């Protein structure tokens, strides 16, 4: 889920707020939350000259960073600084990097052409005396764009891409999702409580059998949950018995 001060995040999402904060990035964050993946998103709309320490620390603490490249991404000094720091973390601590090309071609990012070329033309004028900084930004974009990533163009269904990225992140973090089973178990347990009350009010064999059938289904779902968490290999499934085929 989105990071609070009490919990540690696993994923840092780097994005250009003006381009995707309320659209693609918010949808991606929601998809990750549904899979119980803790994320860090910078909600501070204020921008200063230097990237704040809290963001540098958030990048460092993440196991995986998603970089959402968009049309105006390169115009943001902060976004570029974040990419540089993400790649440094990849080198130092093997942080996983997942680039997403949101309505922008990877070649535009890799070669800094198009809108990215325009942005760097302005950076070179503004930071004329700090060309080493601009060079690091260019190198970082080239390196990040060379990573295997996800494309999201106008002719693709965004929902499917977002769900695909979220599942990819889950696998890269070596997570197992059991939220769907937890929800089923919760509903069946509520149903069992009602059936038990009904059986106590009207005691007969039929009501007892219905109640016992629900209890059996709860046991099956809990077993399925445990099996999923164990990550059993195909050769181990025969030892599970009937539960493994449900």
Automatic annotation (TrEMBL):
What keywords would UniProt list here?
NAD
Does NAD count among this protein's keywords? yes
Q: Which residues form the TIR domain?
A: 7-173
Its name, as the record gives it, is Disease resistance protein RPV1-like
| PANTHER family per UniProt | DISEASE RESISTANCE PROTEIN (TIR-NBS-LRR CLASS), TMV RESISTANCE PROTEIN N-LIKE
- Gene3D superfamilies (UniProt xref): Toll/interleukin-1 receptor homology (TIR) domain
Q: Which GO terms describe its biological process?
A: signal transduction
The record's listing under SMART domains reads:
TIR
